[in-house]
Structure formats: C-alpha cells, structure tokens
C-alpha cells in the first residue's frame, strides 16, 4: 500500500474523482466530509466503481476535538484538503461563513496535522487568486489579487501554507490552482449536480440539456474576446484527479513544496461551450445573450508549463470528452 491519505471534502465533486485516482494507484484514501455539499450516496457509488468498501468519516473540519480523535485513530501519510465553501456570490453575502470554513478550517486542520507529525498537504486553490490578470495565459508568477471574499480565502490560505513551510521545513505543501473544472467520471455514476440553480456555466448548460432549465443565459457578448463572450480554461475533472495524484507523489517522494496552475492551457468561449455541449447531447441548446455578470473577467487561461515541468502533468481530455462525460452523467440522473 502506497500510503494512507485523508481527503477532506472527499465526497464532493473533485474529491470523489480524486478518491478513485488514488485508489487505482494503490493508495488507501479515507474521506472526511460533513456532507453539507455532497450526496450521501457518493461513498456507495465510489465503492461500486472501485469494487471495494470506502472509509468515510462524517465530520466538520472546524471541529478540533473530532479531528484530534480522527488523527489519533489513523496514521495518515498526507492530506488532500478539498473541504471549503466555493460559491463566489454567497461569499459576498456571507463573508464570515467563508472565512470561518475556508480559513478557520485550514487552521484547525493544519494544527492537528502538525500535532500528529503529518506535514504533507495538497491544497485546492483556484485561478480566482489572479483576480483580473494582466497576462493570459497566466503564469504562477502573476500577482495575487482578490476580487471577492472567496478569492480572499484562497489567497490567505496560500499565504498561511507558505508561512508554515518557511517556519518549518518539515512541511511539504502542494498548492494546485485549478482553472475551470468540468466533466464527470466515465462511469456516469459520479459528477457535479448542484441542488439549486447552478452558478457555473457547465452545470447550468447540463440542466438545460436535460430540460430542467429552459435556456442558457450568456452573460455578456461585448468582451474583448474573439466572439465577445467570456473565455475560460476548462479542465476535465479526471485530469484534475490525476494532477492530485502527481502532486501527492511528488511531495511524498521529493519532499519539496510546489505551487502550480492546473489547466489545459486552452481557452473556450461561452458560445463554443454551448456548441460543444449541443454536439454531445445531440440537439441545439437554446441560449439568450443577457447583461454581463458583475465581477466577471473576460479571459482566464492557464500557463501550464510549470505543472508539466515539476509534476509531469499535462491534460489528456479535450472539450468534446468533457461535454460527453458531463452529458452521460447528467442524463443518467433522476
Ligand atoms: P464541492 O462542494 O463539491 O466539495 C467540497 C466538499 O467539502 C463537499 O463534499 C462538502 O460537503 C465538504 N465540506 C464543506 N464544508 C465542510 C466542512 N466544514 N467540513 C467538512 N467538509 C466540508 O466542491 P469542489 O468543486 O469539489 O471543490 C473542492 C475544492 O476545490 C474547494 O476547496 C474549492 O474551493 C476548490 N476549487 C473548486 C473549483 C470549482 O470550480 N469546482 C475551482 C477552483 C477551486
Ligand atoms: C464561466 C463563463 C461566465 C454562467 C468560477 C469561480 C472561480 C472558480 C471556477 C472556484 C464566464 C459565463 C456562466 C452562466 C454564462 N471556482 N457564464 N452563463 O466565473 O470562470 O469561475 O468557477 O474556485 O473562482 O469564480 O466560472 O462557470 O461561473 O463562468 O455566460 O449561466 O461562463 O460569464 O464567462 P468562472 P463560471
């Protein structure tokens, strides 16, 4: 066995796919989740796909005494820390909830990890730390700028982790700045399916494709982009899961921290996404151009060379594979 790894937020969208990648690579992943944003049947689905029982701890990362008990009971080699609140608009309305969960949770977790001599962590950061970048594709050296409380929590988390590494070289930290995760597992058994009206483009398109929502609203067509709509770097969640595996292996083997972008390096506009999804589901999806969404930036696209150089990571799946997997997942729901 390659090591026992705690996945906080492991029942969520990215955590559940990473669970399968770790298990396939011979690791012993353990899920910790409070199920505030995950379906309770995810562990059963993961057990079904991987053919073995799934270890799940229902807990809140802010519950210090519970975490102490969990670390005393398990000998973890490393942690992948996904658990966080992630909705930008909600973070503007409820900043304290975001600071409490994302910052308070990180502080509690790393304090308990240090007490138990577990000092290897992969952290879910986000391209949102670039705010409105001056440069695209955006390199990791671009300045960090927060444009909402969610972004602030990711910048602060990165800074906290960097200070920990400086103070104690036994800590090895992998900071992964994801661009726009999309798609689902090829089995069609796990994926992203928000309970409410989705905030993000891909799950919104998916709900229009299955007829749950009437039409896609395209937020602005007057950006300085080839077709005027927003451009993003969509990365297949299966590629993202592999990136976590590579990050973890690098930390455990080389004992050296890293901070890298995880994207495909390829940008697609909202209209290109609508077309690609229409191909996947076999009909032209209805859309309407509406006003820009406040706070949106025209283009996010990753400079990807550093992840390739340090981790050997390169995305494998293209846009059609992303849309096909999303459609397989969403059309199998309900
Ligand atoms: P998700 O909401 O599907 O997964 C997060 C999981 O954490 C959920 O299962 C939720 O139940 C759990 N959780 C939340 N608060 C908790 C708490 N206090 N204690 C224990 N568990 C808790 O989100 P995701 O898309 O899988 O995102 C995972 C991570 O990646 C987050 O840190 C997010 O900020 C980051 N990220 C996501 C995206 C994206 O677009 N999905 C992009 C960049 C970064
Ligand atoms: C993509 C494009 C919209 C919805 C967000 C967070 C970011 C990260 C990923 C966590 C934009 C347009 C969207 C819709 C649309 N999350 N759009 N109609 O804004 O790039 O990033 O998720 O870290 O922090 O900010 O993703 O999917 O919301 O938008 O036209 O109904 O689609 O304007 O151009 P975004 P998104």
Please describe what this structure looks like.
Helix 6 links the parallel strand 5 and strand 6. The longest helix has 21 residues. Helix 9 packs across helix 11. It is built from eleven helices and 13 strands. The protein binds nicotinamide-adenine-dinucleotide and UDP-4-deoxy-4-formamido-beta-L-arabinopyranose. The site of nicotinamide-adenine-dinucleotide has 25 residues, from helix 1, helix 5 and strand 5. Nicotinamide-adenine-dinucleotide (NAD) binds next to helix 1, helix 5 and strand 5.
Please sum up the structure shown:
It is globular and about 55 Å long. It contains eleven helices and 13 strands.
Keyphrases for this structure?
single chain; 334 residues; alpha/beta; seven-stranded parallel sheet; two-stranded parallel sheet; 11 helices; globular; binds nicotinamide-adenine-dinucleotide; binds UDP-4-deoxy-4-formamido-beta-L-arabinopyranose
Helix/strand layout:
Layout: E1 4-8, H1 13-24, E2 28-33, H2 42-50, E3 55-58, H3 64-73, E4 78-81, H4 88-93, H5 95-115, E5 120-126, H6 149-167, E6 172-178, E7 180-182, H7 201-209, E8 216-219, E9 231-232, E10 234-236, H8 237-254, E11 258-262, E12 268-269, H9 270-281, E13 287-290, H10 305-311, H11 319-331
Parallel strand pairs: 1-2, 1-4, 2-3, 4-5, 5-6, 6-11, 7-10, 8-13
Antiparallel strand pairs: 9-12
Helix pairs in contact: 1-2, 1-8, 3-5, 5-6, 7-9, 7-11, 9-11
Residues 9, 11-15, 33-38, 60-62, 82-84, 86, 101, 105, 124, 126, 178, 181 line the site of nicotinamide-adenine-dinucleotide.
